[in-house]
Amino acid sequence: MTALADPTAPPPAPSPAPRTPAGGRRGRPPRRRPSGAGRTLHAGPLAYGILVLAVLISAFPFYWTLVAASRSNADLAQAPPALVPGPHLIRNFEAVLEEADIGKALLNSLVVSGSVTLGTVLCCTLAGFAFAKLRFRGRGALLAVTVGTMMIPPQLGVIPLFMLVAELGWVNQLQSVILPGLVSAFGVFFMRQYLVQSLPDELIEAARVDGASTARVFWSIVVPIARPGMAVLGLLTFMASWNDFFWPVVALSSSEPTVQVALRQLGGGYVHDQSVIMAGTLLGTLPVLLVFGLLGRQIVGGIMQGAVKG
Predict the structure, then answer these.
(1) Nearest CA-CA partner of 146 in 178, 188, 116
(2) Beta carbons within 8 Å of 211's beta carbon, 6+ residues apart
(3) Which of 70, 164, 232, 258 sits CB 3.0–4.6 Å from 109 for a disulfide?
(4) How does it sit in the membrane (predicted)?
């Protein structure tokens, strides 16, 4: 006969679940807290001191330009010179307008710099996309030649370029300054490196499967992804074109000047009027500061947005 269980006996204790050697339950690996999680890094007094010093060193040239533009030439010749703005800013601006056609020069520089920036961003993005993601014969050799042109001093090509411009009848015309700067080797290499890292091949392959052409892939996929890099390249190109002096002073005359060519006419005489020169420099610098102030936050935000991987 089978023995009956004692009803008064306590129930057996449940057996513990088997554990892994690491100490966790089977099928559920132990969770590890990521390194640095929950910690906030705070800058110390040394970091703030270095940042403040860097800001002061960077901003002092602009402040000194304002001080010199608002003083007279005699005030600048004093020892030690004045370090606070003076009352002659408006008078120096009027002298700038009398000695040079600064209004026309600002308009010409805006046309030249805007056209060069738009052309460089578009052409360099197209070439960078081709070198980064398209497969064609001679791609490596063409890229090497493009990068190699960066090692040639631009002064070596001034005479052949001026001869070409003279044959076309473009001397003293703005297109002689705009067309040679529409493409740059640095811009092509910059956009190529940016698209290699930021543009996945899977997106292009998916667009090809959907029947998109190369032009559709460029405008619908490449341009939105490359927008942060295009903004950075556009800002650098605009500043370089605005500050260019060597080629505009060769190709243009005083009747069609850019800002840098017009500033050469300031402060003439036996004794150069440094205050008038500084006032013209301040007028020529304000548009660049305005562009940077309007686009700087968008450029930084676009770079940070493009750095986030979903």
Answers:
(1) 188
(2) none
(3) 258
(4) Multi-pass membrane protein
Helix (H) or strand (E) holding 254: none
Quote the DSSP letter at residue 181: G
For residue 29, how far is the Cα from the chain centroid?
46
3-state secondary structure of 243: helix
Residue found under tokens 């960066």:
150
| Segment 183-216, tens digit of pLDDT | 999 999 999 999 998 888 898 999 889 888 988 9
Write the CB contacts of 241 (distance below 8 Å, at least 6 apart in sequence): 112, 113, 116, 117, 181
Walk along the chain (310 residues) in steps of 10 and give the mean pLDDT of each run: 51 54 52 55 83 92 90 83 86 85 88 94 94 90 92 88 91 91 92 90 90 90 89 89 90 85 75 83 86 71 50
**Dist CA 55 CA 262 (whole Å):** 30
